[in-house]
Amino acid sequence: MATSKQYAWYLEGNQVAIVEKDVSFDNDITSKDYGPGASRQRWESPQSSVEDGLKVKYVYSPTYRIDESEDKDTQLDTFISFDGLLKLQDAGSYDYASEKGIGEGSYVVLEKAGRFNGLHKVKEAGVGFITLYTKYNGSGTVAGIFEEVPELFYNISVLQDESFELDLPLYLQKALVYYVKAKLAEDAGELKLREYAMREFKKMIEKHENSRISGLRITSSGSHAIR
Amino acid sequence: MKVQELMERVGAEETGRVIAYIKDGLEEINMLTETHTRLERFDITEDQRFYTLPNEMVKMIDIRVKNHLNSKDEYRSIPRMIHKPVVKDADNT
Question: Which of A86, A167, B10, B36 could bond A134 through an S-S bridge, CB–CB 3.0 to 4.6 Å?
Fold first, then answer.
């Protein structure tokens, strides 16, 4: 059976720091000072490795749509820096250009790829590799290994022209219209119109939020309470 | 709604500028309310304190760790520290 542990987190730049409580019990029955208690109790780096031990749930911006979730590749396993760009590699000899139709200028979405999750633009694809326009300043010789099997989606629509269908609830699409109006008014120096449109935008967001929660809202310290 | 319709509603003709503002707006909406969420798993490595967050992350909702205050392999939310711990990470990685 797994043993119970105690963790906490804090932020440092774009990284999350995970610390574990290290407790050394001081209840040696051969000691004349025997008694319950702990001789050491402090927060340190994780005391042991845990596979899939950390889950981070986050919000991302929907600037793309995955058109077919079946159109994905799961053969990529390593990554490397190539002229300062991110190059994805697989151990086999799969031709991504001819088999998947991935080429210069096309877009791919990575999932289960840790820090590289999200939308990427392709620079080049070939046998066993895909080079992206994404900047990466890691090692150019020692390949990094993905912790999980990354999923690469290649049949996607990207917000880059007028034909893109916004992936938002209907009500929030109207709020987005007010946001764009506000920004255009700001550019034109029409600050009254900007304030009005931005107020409407925020009001609609609040109404959207409230439409899903009925009754009273009670404020209380939750699981993320500061210790 | 397509971008085309949004452009007609705001009376704009410059596609590039409107798309830039739409991207800003989508981020702003997701800062205020959550429309698209994703869960990412990381391996916890002994003596490794820092883990790089996904670049696409707009807002973090929750951090859960396996066996936190339980021994049943359950993932539970962990608290945030207000002060950094006294014991520093050995190699700051």
Answer: A86
In order of A94, A183, A185, B17, the CA distances from B13 in angstroms are 43, 14, 14, 9
A188: CB partners within 8 A, 6+ apart: none
Please tell me the distance from the alpha carbon of residue B81 to that of residue A43, in angstroms, as a whole number: 10
As a whole-number percent, the residues of chain A with pLDDT over 70 amount to 89
Q: Give the span between the Cα atoms of B23 and B21, in whole angstroms.
A: 5
Could you tell me if A27 and A36 are in contact, meaning their C-beta atoms sit under 8 angstroms apart? yes
Q: What pLDDT, in 10s, does the model give residues A67-96?
A: 998 988 898 989 999 999 999 998 877 888
CA distance to A55, B11, B49, B65, per residue, from B62 (Å): 8, 40, 18, 10
- Distance separating alpha carbons of residues B44 and B50, to the nearest angstrom: 10
Q: Using an 8 Å CB-CB cutoff, list chain A residues near B57.
A: 58-60
Nearest CB to B63 within list A50, A56, A161 = A56
pLDDT tier at A55 (50, 70, 90 boundaries)?
A: very high
**CA A165 to CA A148: how far, in whole Å?**
31
Distance CA B81, CA B13 (A): 49
Q: Which of B58, B64, B82 faces A55 most closely, judged by CB atoms?
A: B64
Q: Which residues of A touch B79 (CB under 8 A)?
A: 8-9, 223-227
Minimum distance, in Å, between the CA of residue B45 and any CA atom of chain A: 4
Q: Does the structure's ipTM exceed the value 0.85? A: yes
Per-domain residue ranges of chain B: 3-77
CA distances from A40 to A20, A21, A30, A44 (A): 13, 10, 19, 11
Q: What are the chain A neighbours of B63 within 8 Å (beta carbons)?
A: 9, 16, 54-57
At residue A119, φ and ψ (nearest 5 deg) are -85, 140
User: Cα separation of A33 and A31, whole Å?
Assistant: 5
